[in-house]
Amino acid sequence: MSDHPLARLGWRADLDTDLRAIGDPELVAARVIAVDRGRAVVDAGAGAWSASLAGRLRRAAALPATGDFVAALPGGPVRAVLPRRGVIARRGERGRPEVLAANVDLALLATSANRDLKPRRLARFLAVTARGGVEAVVLLTKADLTDDPVALAAEVEGGLDGTPVVPVSVVAGTGLDAVRALLAPGRAAVLLGTSGVGKSTLLNALLGAERQATAPIRSGDDRGRHTTVRRELVALPGGALLIDTPGLRLVAPLEDRDEPVPLLDKAQVKRERRARERAFHRDVYKDMRTRKRDREARDRRHGL
Questions:
Q1: Most Cβ neighbours (<10 Å): which of 164, 191, 216, 300?
Q2: Quick one: 117 and 218 in the same domain?
Q3: Which of residues 260 and 289 earns the better pLDDT score?
Q4: Is residue 136 located within the same domain as residue 98?
Q5: For residues 19 and 26, is the Cβ–Cβ distance under 8 A?
Q6: Is residue 253 a part of any domain in this protein?
């Protein structure tokens, strides 16, 4: 691992050039741990502090988001947001992007194995991660509530064109090792899903401590209760990073006609373009396969 002060927080060496280009030797690189009430909790490697946002930054198009790397005065305000990669963003008002997490390497899409399991919603989450060029894995939480979680995971995976699906039960202690195997030192994952699917419970299990408040599932519908209140980057045992997020009620992927995500680096833009092209071709091939199956089924019915 690099000896950079931010190495444990996933520092990208290519950002050194962007930091120097600002032209202020007093500024240091820091990572945004959380954003709260117009301030950013940032860490430059020696400990976190609550930083105000410089006036010029408040007027800019790109405000800091959890996971961003920024330029800040030590112990003082954030002056600039550095170029982003691996951005998780959804469509906000009038097509404006709302950045949920930045500089993410992996998205863990949590959906419970009970009544919350909705393939169309998972498809929207996958559209968000694909547009950001972020690898995705679906976590089928509360797997102890279904009779055959392995078969259910295989069924869901088949409907998602092969996106990996991992059944997980914190209660039964199953699937946790598979999740840990996805996480690596210095790499950042983001945990996404609706409220009540067990994200906080899973995070506590990965941490080995009751860090996040949790609430028992409701007996009427097997759903949990909303407990996470802000997006926060957490360091896990072993050195991996995880951005915990509140439950998302609205999952609207950005569209080509929408405003672009600000401060994307050029490599990210190219990845997004390739991801859109791959998604287009996947849809074309999927449609061709469906038409072929339908045609063959008609032929069999008519004895052809």
A1: 191
A2: yes
A3: 260
A4: yes
A5: no
A6: no
Summarize pLDDT for 111-166 with one digit per residue, the tens.
Answer: 998 877 888 899 999 999 999 999 999 999 999 998 999 999 999 998 887 899 99
Burial tier of 82 (Cβ tally within 10 Å: 0-12, 13-18, 19+): buried
Residue 303's domain spans which residues? 266-304
106 CB burial (10 A radius; 0-12, 13-18, 19+): buried
Cα separation of 176 and 179, whole Å?
5
Question: Which CATH number goes with the domain that contains 177?
Answer: 3.40.50.300
Tell me the residue length of the chain. Answer: 304
**How many domains would you assign to the chain?**
3
Q: State residue 149's pLDDT score.
A: 92
Continuous H helices in the chain: 15-21, 55-58, 119-131, 149-159, 176-182, 199-207, 266-301
Rg of the chain over CA atoms, in angstroms?
A: 21
Q: What is the mean pLDDT of residues 197-204?
A: 92
Closest CA to 182 of 90, 231, 109, 102: 109
Statement to judge: residues 204 and 115 lie in one domain: yes
- pTM of this prediction exceeds 0.70: yes
**Mean pLDDT lowest for which of 4-8, 108-112, 260-264, 281-285?**
281-285
**Weakest mean pLDDT among 42-46, 118-122, 208-212:** 208-212
Q: Is residue 255 part of a domain?
A: no
My answer on whether 98 and 237 are in the same domain is yes
Domain shared by 62 and 22, yes or no? yes
* Alpha carbon distances (Å) from 207 to 198, 239, 252: 14, 11, 30
Query: Is residue 296 pLDDT above 80, yes or no?
Result: no
Residue 284 placed within a domain: yes
Q: Are both 94 and 207 inside the same structural domain?
A: yes
Determine the angle formed by the axes of helices 266-301 and 119-131, rounding to 10 degrees: 140
| Residues 108, 145 within the same domain | yes
